Amino acid sequence: RFSIWARTDAMAPYNSFGNGSAMRVSPVGWYFSTMQETLCWAEISARVSHNHPEGIKAAQATASAIFMARGGQTKVRIRQEIEAAFGYNLSQTLDSIRPGYQHDVTAAGSVPQAIIAFLESDGFEDAIRNAVSLGGDSDTQGAIAGSIAEAAYGIPASIRTEALARLAPPMLGVVDRWESALARRESV
After folding, report:
1. Could you tell me which residues come within 8 angstroms of residue 127 by beta carbon, excluding any fewer than 6 positions away?
2. Which of 132, 141, 86 is nearest to 110 (CA)?
């Protein structure tokens, strides 16, 4: 769908119900100070390309989980809120998902699994390992689970140092500007 869209003159979104909107929404979960703002901006973020209701729902669910995790909500509360608001079944376990799981880039077929990977984790790296252990679209699922885990646990210094060392200077500038914007937002 993206390839077809990219080769056209159309500027409108292409009604995607894939998981990309959830993969890229983490800044929304970090930046806003109310759940209402978070949900609104997650939808705006998704609509750029993933304007199908499932694409929007995936972005909102992920941003909501990040917002709740950074606010100190428990995993039980996060699970309950995401299930109630978005209708995802988060009661499955990774062990029950793994045997029949296949590559799935749809929001409905990969975002709940990524959230479960976080819910079953005991740390940042464990959340990402859980998501990757499912197979499938593991890079996207790892990004989603990792973004929620960052809000819940933080990023271990050793992982942060190694990741930053691999970034080109222009990308390091993006990280610096983002962290400065968050710091300014928090001081208001």
Report:
1. 117, 118, 121, 145, 146, 148, 149, 153
2. 141
Q: What is the mean pLDDT of residues 16-43?
A: 95
Report the predicted TM-score, pTM, of the whole model to 2 decimal places.
0.92
Q: Does residue 81 sit in helix, strand or coil?
A: helix
Write out the two tokens for 97. 């998902």
- Specify whether the CB–CB gap between 39 and 60 falls below 8 A: yes
**Rounded Cα distance, 171 and 174, in Å:** 5
- Give me the residues paired with residue 106 across strands: 18
Neighbours of 54 (CB within 10 A): 20
pLDDT in tens, 97-145: 999 999 998 889 999 999 999 999 999 999 999 999 999 899 999 999 9
| Structural contact between residues 94 and 117, judged by C-beta atoms closer than 8 angstroms | yes
Closest CA to 127 of 138, 137, 135, 117: 117
DSSP states of 19-75:
SHHHHT-HHHHHH-SSHHHHHHHHHHHHHTT--SHHHHHHHHHHHHHHHHHHTT--H
Rounded Cα–Cα distance for residues 70 and 149 (Å):
9
